[in-house]
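Re: export button greyed out
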Amino acid sequence: MELIQQLVNGISLGSIYALIALGYTMVYGIVKLINFAHGDVFMVGSFVGFYAITVMDLSFISALLISMFTCAIFGVLIERIAYKPLRNATRIAALITAIGVSLLIENGLIYIRGAQPEAYPNNVLPMDKLDIFGVSISSQSILILSVSIILMIILQFVVHKTKIGKAMRAVSFDSEAAKLMGINVNNTISATFAIGSALAGAAGVIFGIYYIKIEPLMGVLPGLKAFVAAVLGGIGIIPGAMVGGLLLGVIEALVSAAGYSLWRDGVAFIVLILILIFLPQGLFGKNKREKV
Amino acid sequence: MLKIEDINVYYGNIQALKGVSMEINKGEIVTLIGANGAGKSTLLKTISGLLKPKQGKVLFEGDPIGGKAAQSIVKMGISHVPEGRRVFANMTVAENLELGAYLRKDKEGIKKDMGKVYELFPRLLERIKQQAGTLSGGEQQMLAMGRALMAKPRLLLLDEPSMGLAPLLVKQIFNIIQEISEIGTTILLVEQNANLALSIADRAYVVETGRIVLSGKAEDLTSSEEIKMAYLGGH
Ligand SMILES: Nc1ncnc2c1ncn2[C@@H]1O[C@H](COP(=O)(O)OP(=O)(O)OP(=O)(O)O)[C@@H](O)[C@H]1O
Ligand SMILES: [Mg+2]
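Workaround output, generated via the alternate export path:
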């Protein structure tokens, strides 16, 4: 029973990784950039949610939506200001810029509000314990998991059924051909950043509610782990990021359950190394896409 | 319909087109022939807005389009079927065609035109749900052409539609090009297969290392000694 509870924890944590990993993977898919500032967008989302709940006294859903909206705009600003001028630059230049943006956001926030942590109030979501076949699961975990799943379903719908989603897939496959269809590549890239960042913002609020403590450097580790999750699933592949995130969360929970909780953070990077050695294209990746 | 005046186009420091001028009249099939690396694809990309001319003018129905964004040029009525087809391999045939109509809002019209594309290319109809990447080369060419037609172009740019196809299929594709022309679409056709291109074209331009070296009526060029020697395989 202990194990099942750990699994539920793992899935909840994994759904947070998955939401962040989606942004990494979508952005990589379309501009081939590992956006290292993405973990910081998650952090900003967490703070926006915190202020929405404590200062503006809003409900969970309103805070979630405000955080997603703010992060969407923030993500687009980052893209337009920092990355767009480098679109034709070398990959390493863009990567270094991404790390620079990450440091700027972290230290910018520390400059504005200080480095002290905050605590999410613990009454945002009902805290009942549900008894399911003898396993006690908090209603909070279930709500969090449901929100993540709903967001992922909406994302799938957007990517596959809407015009902007089709444009995103076209641009990430072949941006020049997409231009010939009349697709505005710049706007499509911005939309991708907006959607990815909104998901990170949602993850930030969920994280705050689940783990209570938030601080300006909180995005670093989940950001890196979500990156591992994206690579695990196959970078650039949306369902891969979802599965990779959930899997990584479960692996961490199982490692904890086995009594190696000190190894919890390290295990993500062991996974990364193993994946890069044995399955560099990731679980869902095909062996190099063919372009004839 | 399209008028190009003395354009220079560069890739970085390399000049790919040197003072190229040409003209296409409404309803014509004009072909552009020339050896590998002559600059044919570069010229098409400049017309469709993927490249910007450094000097010179590109006029489409009197409006300057040189340097405009590709999406506005599509909107004005020029569609480009690029070299190598460039279909969206990870999407189905139907999705590729829908993307061709990306800028259109007339749902009814789109549906009707999709029907027309399937009439023109029945092979695509049988494969609506198939991933474009799993189509044969010929089918991909048909899809690329169908996709371009979905934008309802008045001028269609075709870059080497026969590339890598078996002779029978090439013939089929060329018949379809003629059909497209007959329904009123003006065509600029780039081809390595000069014989075939000249056989369906009204006029032709010959490109050599970034310059137009010869132009004229297709039938005159077919019988010209110079062309025979250089492009039609001998005497
Ligand atoms: N992206 C690029 N960067 C630099 N040079 C390029 C680029 N694309 C083409 N070129 C150069 O421009 C010249 C013209 O190329 P272009 O592709 O227009 O030739 P082409 O006539 O279409 O040849 P082919 O029949 O082989 O398709 C060539 O010398 C080519 O090397
Ligand atoms: Mg070419």
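Residues 11 and 34 of chain A are 25 Å apart (CA to CA). The button fix ships in the next patch.
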